[in-house]
Amino acid sequence: MLLYKQKKNHALKGTRFLISITVLGSAGPIRFVVNEDELVASVIDHALKLYAREGRLPVLGSIIDNFMIYSPIAGTEALVPWETIGSTGGRNFFLCKKPQPEKAVDDEKASPMSRKGGGSWKSWFHKSRNHKISSH
User: Fold this and answer.
1) In 3-state terms, what secondary structure has residue 28?
2) 58: cis peptide before it, omega within 30°?
3) What is the model's pTM?
4) Residue limits of the DUF7054 domain (predicted)?
5) Among 102, 83, 103, which residue's Cα sits nearest to residue 93?
6) d(CA 6, CA 96)
7) Could you give the CA distance from residue 34 to residue 48 in angstroms, rounded to a whole number?
8) ∠ at Cα 80 (52, 22), nearest 5°?
């Protein structure tokens, strides 16, 4: 009877499995055991804490909203934070920072040094190229 109860409790706990998370720019993957019912956001949080505890480089920070997890099985789409990690069917993942949107700079607020010449790098390149061609 006692053996039956232990198995029943284990079934309620869910399946646990080892995952491997590779952090872009780091020396090697982080490995730890997760419950299949854990949310992706929780896995990101645990990975960031473990990464920091091990003193790995580059330093990532601890704000989970700044990161995404990708699964090679799922393709190029990042996993949704409120999905369960077991729903992906994968055991290997990639952790990377979310791309930060470029801050728009108003022309009024731009410093004189930042908009010197008033153009993009492409226009600068073409101007300098045309200048070299015409001076020869």
Assistant:
1) coil
2) yes
3) 0.65
4) 14-96
5) 83
6) 39
7) 14
8) 35
CB proximity list for 93: less than 8 A, separation 6 or greater? 19, 20, 21, 22, 43, 69, 70, 71, 79
Lookup: tokens for 51: 């990464």
**Maximum average pLDDT range among 89-93, 99-103, 128-132:** 89-93
Instruction: Give me 116's structure tokens.
Output: 């010197």
Residue 113 DSSP SS3: coil
Percent of residues in the chain assigned helix, strand, coil, to nearest 5: 35, 20, 45
Q: Could you count the other beta carbons within 10 Å of the beta carbon of residue 39?
A: 15
pLDDT tens string 100-127: 777 655 544 544 444 444 555 555 545 5
Sort 131 into a burial class: Cβ within 10 Å, 0-12 / 13-18 / 19+. exposed
As a CATH number, domain 2-97 is 3.10.20.90
- CA-based nearest residue to 14, from 87, 75, 79: 87
Q: Which two tokens stand for residue 77?
A: 């789409």
Residue with tokens 């300098």: 128
